[in-house]
Design a protein that fits this description.
With 158 residues, this protein is mainly beta. The protein has one domain: Jelly Rolls. The chain is 3% helix and 39% strand. The chain has 1 helix and 13 strands, in the order E-E-H-E-E-E-E-E-E-E-E-E-E-E. The strands form 3 sheets. The chain has a 6-stranded antiparallel sheet. A hairpin with a 2-residue loop joins strand 6 and strand 7. The longest helix has 4 residues.
Length: 158
Amino acid sequence: MSSEELFLPALNPETVLPRTGSNYPEPLKAKVTGRSKHALGDAAGLKNFGVNRVHLAPGAASSIRHWHTRQDEFVYVLAGELTLITNAGEQVLQAGMAAGFPAGKADGHQLVNRSQANAVYLEVGDRVAGDAVFYPDDDLAATQSTRWSFTHKDGSAY
């Protein structure tokens, strides 16, 4: 059986259309230019957690540096090299390395591709309702009920 003939629950990640761009408000959207996500968890019909295969072009960032109040996050590098930036500083992650970000730990994190080659990683996070996200380096805050809502840190709208 070829990968084109797979049927659920199996799937070929190459057949999942990538999402580019971001739901960040302008002008912050530009900070993730060069990122594309394949929503593998959605394609498999998962409801309780998400799984994305993320491609970062050279110079691209995974997100704005952030942390979640209720959502655990986990990343596993599949290919290339990424710089993990946290409150503690920077570390280089290569293929086969992973990192986890527990909910409620105020340690802003982000991955940046500072190499000259594309990088690919898996991103796994739960889908707990009522999450809030804090962005220590930017004037941005987010809350989630059914959809994500972004404001300035003082609560005013974008």
